[in-house]
Amino acid sequence: MAVRAGILGATGAVGQRLIQLLEPHPEFEITALTASDASAGKTYKQAAKWRVDSPIPDDVAEMTVSATDPDAVPDDVDLLFSSLPSSVGEAVEPTFCEAGYVVSSNSSNSRMADDVPLVIPEVNAEHIDLLEVQRDERGWDGALVKNPNCSTITFVPTLAALAEFGLESVHVATLQAVSGAGYDGVTSMEIIDNAVPHIGSEEEKLETESRKLLGTFDGASLSHDDVEVAASCNRIPTIDGHLENVWIETESELTVEDAKAAMRDYPSLSLRSSPDQLIHVFDEPDRPQPRMDRTLGDGMAIAAGGLRESTFGLQYNCLAHNTIRGAAGASVLNGELLLENGYL
Amino acid sequence: MAVRAGILGATGAVGQRLIQLLEPHPEFEITALTASDASAGKTYKQAAKWRVDSPIPDDVAEMTVSATDPDAVPDDVDLLFSSLPSSVGEAVEPTFCEAGYVVSSNSSNSRMADDVPLVIPEVNAEHIDLLEVQRDERGWDGALVKNPNCSTITFVPTLAALAEFGLESVHVATLQAVSGAGYDGVTSMEIIDNAVPHIGSEEEKLETESRKLLGTFDGASLSHDDVEVAASCNRIPTIDGHLENVWIETESELTVEDAKAAMRDYPSLSLRSSPDQLIHVFDEPDRPQPRMDRTLGDGMAIAAGGLRESTFGLQYNCLAHNTIRGAAGASVLNGELLLENGYL
Amino acid sequence: MAVRAGILGATGAVGQRLIQLLEPHPEFEITALTASDASAGKTYKQAAKWRVDSPIPDDVAEMTVSATDPDAVPDDVDLLFSSLPSSVGEAVEPTFCEAGYVVSSNSSNSRMADDVPLVIPEVNAEHIDLLEVQRDERGWDGALVKNPNCSTITFVPTLAALAEFGLESVHVATLQAVSGAGYDGVTSMEIIDNAVPHIGSEEEKLETESRKLLGTFDGASLSHDDVEVAASCNRIPTIDGHLENVWIETESELTVEDAKAAMRDYPSLSLRSSPDQLIHVFDEPDRPQPRMDRTLGDGMAIAAGGLRESTFGLQYNCLAHNTIRGAAGASVLNGELLLENGYL
Amino acid sequence: MAVRAGILGATGAVGQRLIQLLEPHPEFEITALTASDASAGKTYKQAAKWRVDSPIPDDVAEMTVSATDPDAVPDDVDLLFSSLPSSVGEAVEPTFCEAGYVVSSNSSNSRMADDVPLVIPEVNAEHIDLLEVQRDERGWDGALVKNPNCSTITFVPTLAALAEFGLESVHVATLQAVSGAGYDGVTSMEIIDNAVPHIGSEEEKLETESRKLLGTFDGASLSHDDVEVAASCNRIPTIDGHLENVWIETESELTVEDAKAAMRDYPSLSLRSSPDQLIHVFDEPDRPQPRMDRTLGDGMAIAAGGLRESTFGLQYNCLAHNTIRGAAGASVLNGELLLENGYL
């Protein structure tokens, strides 16, 4: 029997991707959609400017949108996916959790909170049990789990694959697609024949979220990893797919061949949305590329390539689909993890 | 009286920029144009597919193109600018120098040769006197001076400005415009809605040319600087302007304010093509941007911005117009330096 | 002595271009800048997000922005340029005219009003005297003159040049740059790797404004031309420069050579912003192109090319810089016409 | 039992799409691949620079490429798909047909020959029987069928749907994607922030192929339709999907609602690659758009929208995926028609 799923912030770019991913999903069934008060009461078709490249599902089109409020959401919901703007998420996600809802959220608020698990299932599934600490501390019947920022998700799996060599330092430069800023986030005048070497707060997210994701949960509290990360973030004229240049220094010697093997052998999970191969490693020096490789593993794989011995250690490039693996798909995957681990 | 200037490889993208820059130049007069044998004997207008955004000068349009051969070039030439493909440059530049021509070359061949000065005048003008060593060793009446690769020119002036703090290590990621590959270098299918994390040999150029440029010439030989540089190069869908993310670690403590001051105070030269302000430093975090800032100082300035304390040291972004400051303008500037220093 | 000029709506995309054009203009001096109430009282530098590709002039940067209200504007103003959103223009332009101001407006409101001259000086300068009718009818001391829509300006000069052959029908398809919609008008998600075959009300503007521009003013009233025009408008991923495909049928036979001659011979004016050659005709079949040809005549020329005998008559392509010739430059040119004709 | 299919010109952009479409096709099995002599003897993986957005099928990767010569092609081939450059197609397609091969060709050579059927199955399937005339006249055991140019395929189905109203005249402006020129056909310097209002011979193809497609085959010879068509062709910075603006005049009155109904009701076929709905009609005025709508019907549907009463008749926009419906998919569909009609 399918888990009844609602979507908080269903009309935005990530909300639309969530609908696209959940609609054919065998384990989840969409039963609630929320948006701003201005949209409440409208059909989804009226409320949303549909923008993804498959038609809006017929039954979703006719669903009535609710306000984003625990009192307004229909009763038949087991799990909420949240793609709210972070300021809204900050305000309302706790009210849903307090009202007993389990929330798998893509919003950036509370990601670094001590008792909120920040999870990429293939990397740190065991952090999910921080939810027990959360429930104890907050007295919630519900629960709040977060997935990281899209640019963080792109490179952390490759770091996890290399962690056995002892990560010491990481430099990462990102070339990020415009969809990461939402539908209206980047104007065409800003980005055509251009690049913008700044995305607000993004560098800090890569630097801090990565350490939390690679950290250790001892059943009571979470220690962040001590790898030092420096990030530089750029927006480029690409629709989907974040490309990242990474340099790492490790305690143990790390050859190109060892790194490729570690990435290829890094296990995926049997969750429905996990790709068969988590990290797809290219031998061609000019791959991965956003338009060519963002849909590997239905947009849920990480692509890596360009591995070479750098002046300082190893350098390589990695890529992920920012609105699937990096946002909507990440939240769905966390929903699957919640289901498997008995939180629903 | 104007220096009579020829252009080797005049029909290519950099050759066209050379014409655009030399035509109004008060010190140089275009007297010879060469191209491949297939173009020899044609008017320039017939031989070249003109692509820069100002009309082809009338007198240049009607000039007859010569083969790229010392015997074919008209006699009335004091200085040759070379924008040949490197394989051609490798073969023919020495024959011109041996025949007595002074060559200011943008081609990548011989840049790292011990007796070939690699010069950005504002950075290492004194290296030009390596030409005396060159003439002694090679028995040339002519001379060969090189400007660095476009992506090298973009960040080396900022390193030079910070050298007083003791450069230890540099990581640099580049976001390079398509014009850097020449007119036919990047197909539209390769780059629209995409980025390519690889440019053949480019990373090595940044890593090695930067050390030569920052090195010391003692009148007899050149020592390369020992700063360690690691580069990662990307092509993005931008017409002109290379943007670079830089992280540096220095021996002395380096604050953001000290770095800004050092860059702003770094002197330009009084050569005609040198900009009034060599390094333009932005306080806005999202600048420089290629389309907005590539024409600063008529395309000859370096733009910097986004300075912040990084996890490891300082990080910032820099930008230069790759076909002006990074190629044609760099060769013209070296021509001006040759003139000022009595090599013509 | 310079005409003292104010700009209504000075912070928008066209307002910025107006500043860029007026600042070095020998006949006009910027003495007032207005914007929305939220910006009133700020310096221009604080109020505007400056986006054009030359730095903001120092003196303009420090000017104080006024509210867009006749009572708020400084007294020392002889002429107002208006680049207000049309809904705002509709409301406030008449109040300025009533208060005695002469307004040269780019806003789309009132363009088709019987007593408002719609002028491209090289095409229908004589329509400017409709202002006397306007003043009579409205009892204004001021006056209101309009320039047409950017896409209208692009093709009407070519029609005017061919009018002697008896225009019967015109089909025109436009490929319009994103800057035509203002800085925030087109999101990057809408247009990268895409085209949008619809621009609200644009087709009607081409179809009706062209007939007014080609009409006849008899000193008392204006008759519209009876040429029939059908337009289809598209937005494409280009920054500046509207390209248009035109098919025309004429009463008299019209050969390609006759059409080229008529366009080349069509006179420009001696107004300061008029280009030496109004219509630049290319013989190459693949020109004009936006990025290559939009800056002809400092952005004030019309480029035409691709003339060929069509199945039905003649077909050709034309191009103009939409924010210079098509907007800010058009308003400045009308200001120059007002000055020459004694309306200031 | 599957039809054994070879691909002439298998390494190019259309050849790659053919592989992508044929590999999962239940009725066809790829048994031969040809390319230039330089590639003969290599594995396909070595010979082709694979560029489409799904991985190269494993078994195809290891196939040996033959020269494009009847003597070099393996024996076990029932049907050849041809995506040769037209100059090569002109020379070699007849030699294959003479050698007994049935060829479904996308190459532009011979499309207008009197005895060569030019077919869009949903539009003029009955023209396929012109092959009997062809075999008689040429004495071939094989046969040659052509699909039209990509830009022709995009608008002809909409004309066919409206033919009952009596087509008199058609104006069509195209906005064509770069993939239509093949992988290397359009450089990035040509098209980023630009548009090119010329594609060699393309306008003539739309004007003449459309009349042949809409013509009548009486069992002995083919009469072309007498609708008059004028085309203007543009290349824009879009990867896939040709968008076209169409104006038509008809003998009978044609309302927007009648036109929509005629398009929606126009029948598709039961061939495997025919879409369920041939023409998808949008009511939204800003659709179809290339990136949003090119994959309708797995890239085999035609999208139409923006229907409105024009100054002269009806105007609308249409769109098709140029390398699927407009090229590789068109050839596969003709292969299916050949199979159904007993030509294999």
From TrEMBL, chains A, B, C, D:
One biological process term in Gene Ontology: threonine biosynthetic process
Q: What is this protein called?
A: Aspartate-semialdehyde dehydrogenase
Any Pfam family from its record, for instance, is Semialdhyde_dhC
Record keywords: Oxidoreductase included?
Answer: yes
Sequence ranges assigned to domain Semialdehyde dehydrogenase NAD-binding in this UniProt record:
4-131
Cited Gene3D superfamilies: Dihydrodipicolinate Reductase, domain 2, NAD(P)-binding Rossmann-like Domain
Q: Which UniProt keywords apply?
A: NADP, Oxidoreductase
> Catalytic positions?
C150, H242
* EC number(s) stated in the UniProt entry for this protein: 1.2.1.11
Q: Does the keyword NADP apply?
A: yes
Q: Which GO terms describe its molecular function?
A: aspartate-semialdehyde dehydrogenase activity; NAD binding; NADP binding; protein dimerization activity
> What family does the database annotate?
Belongs to the aspartate-semialdehyde dehydrogenase family.
Q: What class of enzyme is it?
A: oxidoreductase
